[in-house]
Design brief:
The chain is mainly alpha-helical. The protein has one domain. It contains 8 helices and no strands. The two termini are 41 Å apart. The model has no long low-confidence stretch (mean pLDDT 94).
Amino acid sequence: MSKRLFKSESKFLEKSRTAITNAESNPLIKAALADYGLGEEQMVHGRQLYNSTQNMWDTNIKEDAESTEASLAYSTTYNKLQTLFKVHRDKTLIFFKLKPELLAKLGVKGSFPRKYNDFFDKVRQYYTTIKSDAAIQAELDKIKVTADIVDECLVLLEELLAKRSHFDKELAESQDMTKSKNAALLALKEWMDEFYIIAKVALYDQPQLLEALGVFVRS
């Protein structure tokens, strides 16, 4: 959703995991780092930062997928109702051109609603007006906008509104989790930056151990 902090967040996380794991498991690395102030307590904090960030990243992927799924479901229903309403609206405008009072009551005068909230309002006005007025329904029967079709469109509208609410909810959750994940990534990056600085000093004469932490050493 929002801009990523890295070209590849997963690559950064894997590099961090490898570095922390090897620092924890290799006695030589562990001792050298501790000698420069990166002891057990600091390493535990780094591991916790990594675990928390990885969990947030995984959750964010899940939230993004749910948001995408909700968006697709909403768009599919929106397009279906939009197609139906446009046909009914166009036929109404043509057939009842000489009855401007009917067109006004049905809310079909003017341009086609493009904003989703305007679309909801116009669709509701059109079909509920027909349903609540037997005389208008009789008129619309002439262009095959029957009572059954009106009922179907109203049911479709309620389904669309529910899907919009669900999409809004999933989108908000995804955006909130993205913010939390980005904050966690930044905190982990700051810790890893300090970790690498200390490691480069502590293991200055042991390039093979540095490379075990993912630090490239020129030969």
